[in-house]
Please model this.
Amino acid sequence: MKRHTNKNDFRASGTKKFDFNFDVDLNLLNTAYEIKKKFDDSPFLSMDFVFDNRDSRYKLVEFQALHFGTSVLVKNHCYFIKKGENWEKVEQVETVEYELALGLSKYLKGQQ
Model:
């Protein structure tokens, strides 16, 4: 999900300007994946990124690991999964309950 800002306002929260149909930059997926690996001891992770035009890099500006909104799951039409060195776009979205149960199950299995 991409959130847009109002003109002359850097804040995206509360604008209700969401975009679910855009080309996803592979650099964003790779950046998110590398950061996610550092949080492998958490079953859930929500991350917000900005693109810095000064150095053409994505930067993590906010993350939540305990409580976060689920609108991305409810409103989205696809997700990406890493397979080897490549990313695969999956045109399907599961329910919030399914994804939360799956994340918790994978986390608990990894703790055994």
